[in-house]
Amino acid sequence: MNEAAQLADRLRQAGYTKCDIARIIDRGPSLVSQFYTKNKGAAFVPALREVLTAVETAGIIDLPELTALAARHTHRRTNAAGRRARVRSKAVLITPTGSGTGRVGAQAIASGSSRLRPLIAEAARRGLRLAFTVRLARTGYLPPSGNRTDSPGIRRDVTQRADHTEERSYGSAQTGGFDATDVAHRVDTHAGDGTAAVHAWLVETGRTHPDAHIPHLEIRTWRPR
After folding, report:
1. Contacts for 18 with CB less than 8 Å, ≥ 6 apart
2. What pTM did the predictor assign?
């Protein structure tokens, strides 16, 4: 473990949780977890040392006091104008009107496309409609390129890319799209893997062969009229 994780471990042995440590350094609990999993936290080592010393030698145990001590050594990043830099936050899955989009590429697909599952589950909970765009190698599709019956989505024409792949859209507001509840059930039967669920549908409907690989997938949602 790196030093940040070691210091965090000593604080946990003293009775503090990861959430407590996150509050002390004024960050999210996920960052504390990344001390262990992603080797992060070097910038917080001085603050954690100060806090640990206060706990072990001065007997300070109150979170507000420890937070004040840590604040002397933790500083938010600033941008070129000197203002506090923006940080990434959780994306809004679906807007109040029902519109939402989720995309996954090669890396996310390799790990199971788990980021699509909450989007699809929320769409099902709200009774929304759903469409998806799939990218395959051109030779991966069985129907001919540009077949309107095969690809009746928002992107009326097939999108061909320089890497010899094609994108085809399935479902749209004009054609009614898919019931998100049905898609969510498919995803659940594939252990939460949205890409595997879509691939199975493509195979079942005669649009691709079982060995085809999906390198990119996009999900769109909307509220039916």
Report:
1. 8, 12, 29, 32, 33
2. 0.57
